[in-house]
Design a protein that fits this description.
Keywords: 2Fe-2S, Iron, Iron-sulfur, Metal-binding, Oxidoreductase
Helix content: 10-25%
Domain Rieske: 27-133
Strand content: 15-25%
Region (Disordered): 284-306
Largest sheet: 8 strands, antiparallel
Protein name: Rieske 2Fe-2S domain-containing protein
Number of domains: 2
Bound molecules: FE2/S2 (inorganic) cluster, fe (ii) ion
Radius of gyration: 23 Å
Shape: globular
Number of helices: 9
Order of helices and strands: HHEEEEEEEEEEEEHHEEEEEEHHHEHH
Organism: Caenimonas terrae
Length: 446
């Protein structure tokens, strides 16, 4: 399939690609810290098309490096995670977490050249239960990102992973595509069955909302609006944040501290990582409807496939093209579940994977409901190209700009203009860190 230059630059993430170089400027969430144990089994890690080995040394320090041993390319994933480093099982060379060769036992001491050999290692750190990797070229990496949900301590947040078999951008676009919600997820919902105050109250009655879109320092932002009572507007806000983050509106705006990273494993596979604050104050989409039952198609967990040690072996689900994403055609026919697929995330997974691994943008016909997607593609592509010609990647050295992003819903008097409504509700929102403190912390981290 021939892609336009724009599509190609937007979707490809390997070393040397426009988007790949841009993404490498940012710290990348890669794994749960708990996936690596000190002196435990090394793990295959695929990130931005690079095959890496991840392990934790005896002191608990994470190591992330090219999986191929610099001697003769045997995989260090097979290596022995020994005291203070990983040892290749082929000829016994040993590397510390910084990639230094610390032992070369297959070479006579008089000819030892371990000081001249280095594995390609990337800086890696743990924060709040997440392993972060920096794959850029700076000698001193930038400060860690300040996406607010990732600043919540362990115990304050639920973090879930799910692998998707398609390109990162088409995966991400599902989160900023407000007009699919009323069909894919709640097309079967009878508006008369929704109690007042239920999170689905307004999305079920008005399935073609209008919305505004704008560029922001962190990326893009939309506000979808509906008139729900005399003089009252119901707003749903959502965000794209550089380079691969989203925030979706399913939660009450002041309390809704959440974020999703759509981390490219390679051009055709993406790891979704979802942080959601633990809070009783968040709206629960699965709360009972008037008939006492929850929304159909909203089971809490998809079925995960057994984990294996391959490059794509982590957080796979059973649902895929070979089983029509576990679609129940009877449920679809009878409209018990509009899509026939029982799990909201799987419904998204099915439609985006069904487009093909890297979809053909020239085949599309974008409508007014796709304004946010078009704007976000353009914004991401422009930022990546600007970086290629020397402009710093946005938010790298001012990570606190990401803290300006919040998603969720609220009601407001119709006379309040949309950006003002956002700013006012932001002032009253729960914050993990006050924005001023965030700026100070970021400055210290430099
Ligand atoms: S290939 Fe690793 S030590 Fe020889
Ligand atoms: Fe969705």
């Amino acid at each position: 399939m021939k892609q336009s230059k724009d599509s190609e630059d937007l979707t490809r993430v390997g070393p040397g690609s426009v988007m790949g170089n841009f993404m490498r400027q940012y710290w990348i969430p890669a794994a749960k810290s708990s996936e690596l144990e000190a002196d435990g089994t090394p793990m295959r890690l695929l990130l931005l098309g690079e095959k890496l080995v991840a392990f934790r040394d005896s002191d608990g320090r994470p190591g992330v490096m090219d999986h191929m041993c610099p001697h003769r390319n045997a995989s260090l994933v097979l290596g022995r995670n020994e005291e203070g480093g990983i040892r290749c099982i082929y000829h016994g060379w040993k590397f510390d977490v910084q990639g230094n060769c610390v032992d070369m036992p297959s070479v006579p001491p008089s000819q030892d050249f371990k000081d001249k050999v280095k594995a390609k290692a990337y800086p890696a750190v743990d924060r709040n239960g997440m392993l972060w990797v920096y794959m850029g070229e700076r000698k001193v990496p930038p400060p860690l990102p300040m996406v607010e949900a990732t600043l919540l301590g362990e115990g304050e947040v639920d973090i879930s992973f799910m692998m998707r078999s398609c390109n990162w951008m088409q995966s991400l676009e599902g989160d900023i595509d407000t007009s699919h919600f009323g069909f894919l997820h709640v097309g079967h919902l009878d508006p008369g069955n929704v109690p007042e105050g239920h999170p689905l109250e307004h999305t079920a009655t008005e399935r073609a909302p209008e919305y505004h879109v704008r560029d922001t320092p962190w990326g893009t932002n939309y506000g979808a609006y509906r008139t729900v009572k005399p003089e009252t507007t119901y707003w749903r806000f959502a965000n794209y944040m550089f380079p691969f983050w989203t925030q979706t509106p399913q939660g009450e705006f002041p309390h809704n501290i959440q974020a999703r990273a759509w981390v490219p494993l390679d051009d055709e596979h993406t790891m979704m990582i979802f942080w959601r604050r633990r809070s009783k104050k968040l709206g629960n989409t699965g709360a009972p409807l008037k008939d006492g039952k929850p929304l159909g198609g909203a089971r809490p967990q998809p079925e995960f496939a057994p984990r294996d040690t391959g490059w794509l072996g982590r957080y796979k689900v059973v649902a895929d093209e070979s089983n029509d994403w576990t679609m129940d055609r009877e449920a679809q026919r009878t409209n018990r579940i509009y899509s026939g697929i029982d799990h909201i995330g799987l419904q998204d997974q099915a439609v985006t994977e069904s487009m093909g691994a890297i979809t053909d943008h020239s085949h599309e016909h974008l409508g007014p409901g796709d304004l946010m997607i078009a704007r976000t593609r353009r914004r991401a592509l422009q930022a990546a190209r600007a970086f290629a010609s020397g402009t710093p990647a946005p938010g790298i050295d001012q990570p606190e700009v990401m803290m300006g992003a919040r998603s969720g819903y609220f009601e407001e008097h119709q006379s309040v203009e949309w950006q003002q409504a956002y700013d006012e509700h932001m002032k009253q929102a729960d914050r993990v860190l006050k924005p001023a403190a965030a700026g100070a912390e970021a400055a210290m981290a430099k």
